[in-house]
Amino acid sequence: MTVSSPASPGNSLSPHRQILGLPFFLGSVDEAVDRMERGGLLVVPAAPALKNLARDAEYREALLAADLILPDSAFMVTIWNRMQGDRIRRLSGLKYLSALLERPSMRAPHASFWIMAGQESARRNRNWLREQGVEIADEDFYVAPVYGRPVDDEVLLARIRRQRPKHIVVTVGGGTQERLGLYLRRRLDYPASIHCIGAAIAFLSGDQVRIPEWADRFYAGWLLRCASNPGRYLPRYWEARKLLPLMLRYGSRLPDMARELTPEKIG
């Protein structure tokens, strides 16, 4: 078990825990938001994407380059605590987003820019944000295309460079949002705060099944998602089981990259 201060000099003094070679933040949600108010890239990796850490080089690079990584995965936290006799707590993207939206810097006109997963998601999310007192103008959101590898979006980059929002909130799927966040951080010419919070807003806006505070607190969000759409989410969470052998093998160490099978080896 590794307890140490964050590697980046800009991080707060709260400790982190090294899990699979990644420094997961152990501070409070307010400390996390304070840290991100200064700019950088925040990611909240979920188990279905985290299991690909040894197979997806671009995803791996984005996590390693992030300025703050939240322990959002209930599955990962549970495995770690059982393995190590530890007592780290989950800090969910849902809780983080709720705290972030309370900050005055998010409520100023044109202070935030939202990257949405689709037109219907954008409509629902904007309506919910308006109810919370956060007005998102037409120029303050962008519907993401389906990204290839590597991520490249000059249209999005030009808009953000022109508008220069303090906060950029990425709400697309895990495995893609982290790569997009790193692309933006590397290409922008000012220190934006890039929050890769994935489906967190969808749980609040009704774009996906609503997850109440008690369900998030008791690690039951995944169960509600599966109940709402079993055909979509059961296969996804079943695949997440592959995180278990990865953690049993590597613990706090960064996994070795898996070798791709060549046609000769497959045959």
Distance N to C terminus? 41 Å
Task: Please bin the fraction of helical residues.
Answer: 40-55%
Count of extended strands = 9
Q: Helices and strands, in N-to-C order?
A: EEEHEHHEHHHEHEHEHEHHHHHH
Share of residues in strands:
5-15%
Query: What's the domain count?
Result: 1
Please identify the structural class as seen in this structure.
Answer: alpha/beta
What is the oligomer described by this structure? single chain
Q: pLDDT under 50 segments (min length 5)? A: 1-13, 260-267
Largest sheet: 6 strands, parallel
Radius of gyration: 18 Å
Arrangement of strands in the largest sheet:
5-4-9-8-6-7
Q: Globular, elongated, flat, extended or rod-shaped: what is the shape?
A: globular
**Continuous helix count:** 15
The average pLDDT is 83
Structure description:
With 267 residues, this protein is α/β, with parallel strands linked by helices. It is 45% helix and 12% strand. The chain contains 15 helices and nine strands. The strands form two sheets. The chain has a six-stranded parallel β-sheet with strand order 5-4-9-8-6-7, with helices on both faces. Helix 4 packs parallel to helix 14 (243-250). The protein is globular.
Q: Which short descriptors sum up this protein?
A:
45% helix; disordered C terminus; 267 residues; alpha/beta; globular; disordered N terminus; three-stranded antiparallel sheet; six-stranded parallel sheet
Write the layout of secondary structure elements.
Elements: E1 3-4, E2 16-19, E3 22-25, H1 29-36, E4 40-43, H2 47-50, H3 57-65, E5 68-69, H4 74-84, H5 93-100, H6 104-107, E6 112-116, H7 119-131, E7 141-143, H8 154-163, E8 167-170, H9 177-187, E9 193-196, H10 200-205, H11 213-217, H12 221-228, H13 230-239, H14 243-250, H15 263-266
Parallel strand pairs: 4-5, 4-9, 6-7, 6-8, 8-9
Antiparallel strand pairs: 1-2, 2-3
